[in-house]
Amino acid sequence: MIHALTPYPAMKDSGVPWLGQVPEHWDVVPALAAYKSRGIKNTGMVEKTVLSLSYGRIVIKPEEKLRGLVPESFETYQIVEPGNIIVRTTDLQNDKNSLRIGHAKDRGIITSAYLCLETTDRVLNEFGYQYLNAYDLLKIIYGYGSGLRQNLDFKDIRRMPVLVPSHDEQAAIVRYLDYADRRIRRTIAAKQKLIKLLQEQKQVIIHQAVTRGLDPDVKLKPSGVEWLGNVPEGWKVKRLKAEMYNLNPVRVPLSSTERGRMTTREYDYYGASGIIDKVDDYLFDDDLLLIAEDGANLVLRNLPLAVIARGKFWVNNHAHILKPIEGKLEYFAAVLEQINYLPWITGSAQPKLTRDRLMAVKIPVPPVDEQEAITEAISNTTLPLSSAIQRTQQEISLLREYRTRLIADLVTGKLDVRGVAAQLPELDAALPEEELDVEIDTDLEGDEPETEAAEALA
């Protein structure tokens, strides 16, 4: 797709180090000439549809999520119109991974902690969004901001350089990006479906092994556990507390030198469900099994629930830390990954899997030598599937990198699309929306982690 694009014939120095050379006929203007801040309060509750910035998209927030950290009145929120550009302005210093730019498709309200922008007459709306999107994807936006937590305000970006070609050229860039983006999304969606099928096949193999063993002719007996069904006659069914210790985190006071050493990756970091977390002073040097405490992760199953941690590592206090009394760590990890934890989760606003409930879960327990045989068989049988999953995930990562580079190169004038865009076929208007609606820049789903807190403080 990109091979047909060529550089512009005449370039000039933009005067901005990171932008470098730009097309000679493009203007370089301050952001205040391209964008203007809205900030229209929802006084009188004229609008009730609550919007949320969710990993680079502006989505309607379901009513069931309007709980926990929310304001007393949504009158403090600001009104958003379709086409408005939302910038998450908070906590630049501590969070350099999230996507911060969204393009509104619906009318609604969003926290006043965010910037709501519209474009001026000089800039087409979609081009204005893609330009800021490039700033976000390239992490240039983190060079702006003020205050202790590096929050953004329009005054912080009003002098930010913006490249402005003619309206016709902006439209050509937008058309090409839309065309390319649809195909990239469709390809990623197909690869994500493949990963899902491979994971399902892998789970079938694991489930069969940890609940029935390796002998297809073995005699079975009722387990008395609904999710488990029948188990081999020689196996026992026990509560987890009979097979594993549930350890309390070991709190270790850290000196400033030791805290600094954490950043050198001398230790690994583990959190609930394997999320790499910023943690303080929980230290282990062992082979342990971590289980999420967070009920949302356990129900949605977006992440692995049973994570084996080895060696020296830090772990946050939102993970249950388990160690076998006797038996194979890998076997227990495989079993605990199969369980539906929904009946064991308590709480609604902050659903959790408590220590007592986790340790009361019943699991199948074969003899130790059979546990070892099962884990070895699982490893050998699922290796081709795991390799295929990893290879497909790498392909998705390359597609995402390609998309980021393409957006950046086009909106900063590194490649000329004028001739190519005019020859593009009509867009796939009939393409099913679900084939395009993929998480293009992250494998996670749901709200950005600080969204509710920001909305509560707005």
UniProtKB/TrEMBL annotation:
Belongs to the type-I restriction system S methylase family. Residues 232-395 form the Type I restriction modification DNA specificity domain. This is Type I restriction modification DNA specificity domain-containing protein. InterPro entries: Restrct_endonuc_typeI_TRD (IPR000055), Restrct_endonuc_typeI_TRD_sf (IPR044946), Type-I_RS_S_subunit (IPR052021). Keywords: DNA-binding, Restriction system. It comes from the Bacteria. Signal peptide: none annotated.
